């Protein structure tokens, strides 16, 4: 295997048997391979949950050595207009398959980026060439795919990978790359990944470039994320009324890790929801986080808004 390619491609599954997570969907895809007559498919779910890997693995299992002749892979975020449907997709769909399987596959990754006109044009193309072409649409948000396209596909909804699945993937990479990862570093990897296989693999590759012995410190530095305990300490200081120490810790986090305001806000949300406090208090704090996150999205000054959020935490703590 080529050593000079990103690990995300180096360790991409080549068969459905190697795909981690979403067992019900994978078992159904294996059944399609067995009877060699799948319908049009749509994979929907968050980034890094295995949608692209599953589509490519399905094609490899079906076509074997003919996969490059029988599979057309397009990224709809790059080629999203109606002209792509009318030319490249239609030209590939109308030709006869050369492989032993009596159809070809057109895989449209990030199909939710297709324009409305392109999606409308795709409706008739899917029906007209269904005898010798199957379509696989992959998207993060199925609501952005028009209903007529969804009704033409068997929809598979992918969920984020579990920590157990990520540990198995990480263990395979550790063995192949001769890495040393202690328990705290593995915990940090799972925290950073949040069920996203790409985040896990890219973070491991980045950390391994520093040393074969990966530590939690390297993980958080590579991923530009604060340690959970640092965020938790900052929130607790604010709720105890110690605003200036909490503000200093916020400043240290922003400077040390180079995080954006929205990234800090997401970590604050994660820590607040996992704190050992009554649900009523969590609801009030999450409400404030949502309000200040909206302000950031609208373009407000991130430093002022984060400090204002800490001030709200302090007022809540004093009121309690």
Q: How would you describe this structure to a colleague?
A:
- There is one protein chain.
- This protein has 320 residues and is an alpha/beta fold.
- The chain is built from 16 helices and seven strands.
- It starts with 6 loop residues before the first helix and ends with a helix.
- The strands form two sheets. It has a five-stranded parallel sheet. A two-stranded parallel sheet has the order 6-7.
- The mean pLDDT is 89.
- Helix 5 links the parallel strand 2 (71-75) and strand 3.
- The protein folds into three domains: 7-157, 3-Layer(aba) Sandwich (Rossmann fold), CATH 3.40.50; 163-223, Helicase, Ruva Protein, domain 3; 228-319, Zinc Finger, Delta Prime, domain 3 (Up-down Bundle).
- It has helices at residues 7-10, 23-35, 51-63, 67-70, 82-94, 116-128, 147-151, 163-177, 183-193, 197-208, 216-223, 228-239, 243-257, 261-274, 279-297, 302-319, and strands at 41-44, 71-75, 104-109, 133-139, 154-157, 180-181, 213-214.
Distance linking N and C termini: 60 Å
Please tell me the total number of domains. 3
CATH class identity of the largest domain: Alpha Beta
Question: Structural class from helices and strands?
Answer: alpha/beta
CATH architecture descriptor text of the largest domain: 3-Layer(aba) Sandwich
According to CATH, the homologous superfamily of the largest domain is: P-loop containing nucleotide triphosphate hydrolases
Order of helices and strands: HHEHHEHEHEHEHEHHEHHHHHH
Tell me the β content.
5-15%
Low-confidence stretches: none
Strand order of the largest sheet: 2-3-4-1-5
